[in-house]
Amino acid sequence: MINIQSDSRKIKPGNTFVAIQCEVNDGHQYIESAIKNGATKIIAEKGNYSVPTEIVENSREYLEKYLEKNYNPYLDEMNLIGITGTNGKTTTAYLVYQALNQMGMKTGYIGTIGFYLEEKVCSLPNTSVDICDTYDLLMQAYDKGYKTVVMEISSHALANGRLKTLSFNYTVFTNLTQDHLDYHKTMGNYALAKQKLFRKLKSNGKCIINIDDKYAEYFLLKNNNNITYGFNDANYQITKYEMVASGSTFTFMHKKQEHLIQTKLLGRYNVYNILAVITLLSEMNIEMEEITKVIPTLDAPAGRMEFIPYKDNTIVIDYAHTPDAIEKVITTVKEVMKGKVYVVFGCTGDRDRIKRPMMTELV
After folding, report:
1. How far apart are CA 265 and CA 277, in angstroms?
2. DSSP code string of 47-64
3. pLDDT for res 181
4. pLDDT score for 351
5. Is 234:211 a contact under the CB 8 Å cutoff?
6. Are strands 201-210 and 226-230 parallel, antiparallel or unpaired?
7. Are 273 and 88 in contact (CB under 8 A)?
8. Residues 2, 139: contact at Cβ < 8 Å?
9. What's the pTM?
């Protein structure tokens, strides 16, 4: 557990509280609450308080330097895997988490569905939590002997510098489709926000990139060790794909050798997710024979193309919340199901309203 916080509600007795000013909030308003909760030191840009206080020019920079100095030496001993993209982050990250644990590598997961070590530890408020929470979760994993953590990385976290002090051993790009344009305004800005993850590699790091995505060039940075996957010419190239009600089968080529893969997951988009996992595991120097054995055992996270039998019908639950995801789920269902398909969907009203009529038209 770390001993510094920028959220007064998370202060434990003996912690240091850092008051950070941002566009929507000023942490100085919560200093008294932090002291009441047990803060024994305050880092602030102004004011006098009843506990030892250090006035600094920029409290955010102070926090970043403090975390980097006190905790990065431990994190440098860990394998950090960052996965970003519009769709597929959760499924890909969760599959990696399962696979590595089954292979005997103690691996944690941080992302949309929560914080997992051996099992789910807690839910999280966002895909990527704030910088103090991220360090706290990583140090919890470290203290319990986890040397690998796979993390979903959101564009908001990258744009707002929530991961500024972290470096990654592996980064993965799944795809980029319309989402969050209420915040980023253009697809170019959205891509550039996600690109920041690929500028955060450790010196021996590797980037895993979906070469088929039309925004792939944003992530193929010149000085990185780039490894590609997809149906087009790639380091890991799909050559054949077939879908049945029980899952998917596909073959891919790597270093002139063909490999057959079977998975419980349905749909062409899940073939991409599975191949991203295979590419990552292979680049982590895990033998292909071991990889092909573990892939058929992996399950998608709950709520991702989840099938529920009901009398003579099948209910499919999916998290799809973008036009691209809606289209892929419906297309997949229509390929394997007979009879009528009914769709019930929604789209929250506080984000990117532009995509709602597009999703309605697809449905």
Report:
1. 13
2. ---SS-EEE-S-HHHHHH
3. 53
4. 63
5. yes
6. parallel
7. yes
8. yes
9. 0.86
Strand segments (E) across the chain: 4-5, 16-18, 41-44, 53-55, 79-84, 107-111, 114-116, 120-122, 148-152, 168-173, 201-210, 226-230, 236-244, 247-254, 257-263, 306-310, 313-317
Residues of the chain predicted below pLDDT 70: 23, 127, 178-185, 245, 348-352
Furthest CA-CA distance within the chain: 71
d(CA 140, CA 133): 10
Distance between CA 90 and CA 83 in Å, rounded? 9
User: What letter would DSSP give residue 26?
Assistant: B
Could you tell me if 196 and 165 are in contact, meaning their C-beta atoms sit under 8 angstroms apart?
A: no
CB 306 within 8 A of CB 238: no
Nearest C-alpha neighbor of 105 from the set 94, 93, 114, 118: 118
Q: Are 280 and 170 in contact (CB under 8 A)?
A: yes
The radius of gyration of the chain's CA atoms, rounded to the nearest angstrom, is: 22
Helix (H) or strand (E) holding 181: helix 181-184
Q: Are 301 and 94 in contact (CB under 8 A)?
A: yes
255: left (phi over 0), alpha (psi -120 to 50) or beta: left
Residue-level pLDDT at 330: 86
How far apart CA 129 and CA 111 sit, in angstroms, is 8
Q: Which residues contact 349 (CB under 8 A, 6 or more apart)?
A: none
**What's the mean pLDDT when you consider all of the chain?**
90
* Cβ(17)–Cβ(11) below 8 Å: yes
**Is 121:114 a contact under the CB 8 Å cutoff?**
yes
List Cβ neighbours of 36 (8 Å cut-off, separation of 6 or more). Answer: none
Tokens matching residue 97: 């988490």
Cα distance between residue 43 and residue 303, in whole Å: 42
Whether the CB-CB separation of 131 and 64 falls below 8 Å is answered with yes
**291 membership: H or E segment, kind and range:** helix 288-294
Between CA 251 and CA 240 the distance in angstroms is: 5
Distant-in-sequence, close-in-space partners of 352: CB < 8 Å, separation ≥ 6:
178, 179, 180, 181, 182, 183
> What residue ranges in 36-142 does DSSP mark as E strands?
41-44, 53-55, 79-84, 107-111, 114-116, 120-122
**By the 8 A CB rule, do 295 and 260 touch?**
no
